[in-house]
Amino acid sequence: MSSRERILGRVRRALADVPQDDMPYEQAVPRDYLREHGERSVEETVDLLAENLADYRALVHRCAPDVLPSLIAGLLTARDARSLLVPAGLDERWLAATEVTRVPDLADSSAHELDRVDSVVTACALAIAETGTIVLDGGPDQGRRRITLVPDHHICVVRVPDQVVSSVPQALERLDPARPLTWISGPSATSDIELDRVEGVHGPRTLEVVLVGGQASADVNS
Amino acid sequence: MSGTFVGMPAFPAAAHEAVRNPTLRGNLRHATHTIRAKREKAVAEVSDWAQLREAGRRIKDHTLRHLDRYLVQLEESVTAAGGTVHWAVDADEANRIVADLVKATGESEVVKVKSMATQEIGLNEALEAEGIRAYETDLAELIVQLCEDRPSHILVPAIHRNRGEIRDIFVREMGEWGRPAPEGLTDTPAELAEAARLHLREKFLRAKVGISGANFMVAETGTLVVVESEGNGRMCLTLPETLISVVGIEKIVPAWRDLEVFLQTLPRSSTAERMNPYTSMWTGTADEDGPQNFHLVLIDNGRTDTLADEVGRQALRCIRCSACLNVCPVYERAGGHAYGSVYPGPIGAILSPQLRGTASEIDASLPYASSLCGACYEVCPVAIDIPEVLVHLRERVVAGGQVTRNGNKVLLKPAKGHAAERAAMRAARWAFAHPGALRGGQRLASRTRRFHPRTLPGPGRAWSGSRDLPPVPSEPFRDWWQRTHGGKDGAK
Ligand code: SF4
User: For B10, which of B26, B311, B365, B412 could close a Cys bridge (C-beta 3.0–4.6 Å)?
Assistant: First the structure.
């Protein structure tokens, strides 16, 4: 007998007490929890996202679409970034104002090569306001999972309000499980040493989130 | 289960050692109290916590009750997504499968993201015996591995070490394993984390094989989920060419949307955050993104035996958040090592003796490693009634009875060496025949113990009115310990 058969056989014998007509899945699980917590206007939801991102030590910037290229250029200059990873499908206009050397996201570049790159700019699949989370799904404007992992500085652009959802349930509804997904809430962190929080153990130590939306507004927390 | 630490004394003796170590106690107390207070705040933020908890409980219960079906469905969806599924009855088989998979790649080292399942089966040691070196990449696991210690907490395994000790371990040991600690390393957490970053990065960038566990597996879609903070998980899950995930068969949820429950309750219960910094989800393999070979090793290793116990099976709902550890007065004093297994604290006290059976002294003593105060049940995000299972297991240890071991029904003899408990249990027989009354009575009794109640309020009154409270089930752990073991060396 294969181990598969043996385990499945054991499971079935172990469940001899469970009746054939046991409650089906749809009825077995009450879904009376909330789809989102509290009532907010669209604007308030975006504000909450900004607040929660900042609370988890992401650096949050807000700007109008026409200001985005100069904002990105400024962020790269401020970090003295000399090289920049760029996913194949990133909106070209976002990088119009920067001269930084571009490194394309290629399947055959080695991890060591990526390690030498200073920064990476990506879009995202969506962002969750209640938890301060951005979600990447490997789309053309986000690239392979490793490009937002190895470089030390990640700039992530979120289109507001259309890429913002309130809650985790709303996020899952919009995501495709067949894609590789990375949920990011603030930069990498550890509390392993006497529970003191330290940012940046293995992922990017600096996460900058740019909320780009309709009307121009001043920088928040930058 | 091969996870028993060799030469491990039974819980009371091991706990006794820990209680006499003031550094350990201080570290533990600081840690558990800090996390506990933060958790309460994080939970208070969501007004529907009770509903989320109930949904989580029901999802897991439903899955367990139909586990055969969901396992088959999971296998189909993982296979369809390009992964390969392996089944392992026990630790030896799981270790052999993993070792063979690693050898097939021609590699002799692997990077690992913290996984309790691989600790449970002793994978690192098994790989070492095959000439394969496994590097733990979680900061705390790294600390523990460097000093050949054992983890003491599910979430913060090096909670028993303070910064000075960690610095010394890094300076002394890092060079033995790869990149040495930087010159002049101090004991500030930031510098220590930087040293770990540099030391491990060298390994991540060259690793061809990664090994992980998983927090959840979605039967419907074949998606695996790993929840973490440091980024070492992402490193192990995406940089290597081959990924091997070793996961207990109970980690399934039926549908994609079920994650909406656990991704809200797990981080809050665990690290007291709204969301942990990184969550990775992958479904088989993805074109030119991440590992191109994906293997899922499903392990039983005592889980089906646990499933066969109608009272005890609820322990398999556990999502390893560690909330129950942080509220447990016994854990706080005794520390994780005293439990003699990879699963410490209240959950360890009910899970280990079920996974491994109660034949050894340590396993037989674990159900007594509790004051039955009920705090663990109250914080558990999947509402596992740990006190109920503890009492059930005590009864089993004391009175024997039918259990399932390795898939076979066997009759367990009453444990030797527990004569005191046996006698005490006899006195409480009536209560065991009335589990409802016992359950209500116990919690209340333990919570109001200071006031020495003669009768119980509420539902317990009917029976306690005409009886004295059964002394055994509500006996505080400390008293039991003192009574049965404390006299040995006369220590207070
Ligand atoms: S038993 Fe409950 S509280 Fe304890 S680790 Fe498991 S899920 Fe968390």
Answer: B365
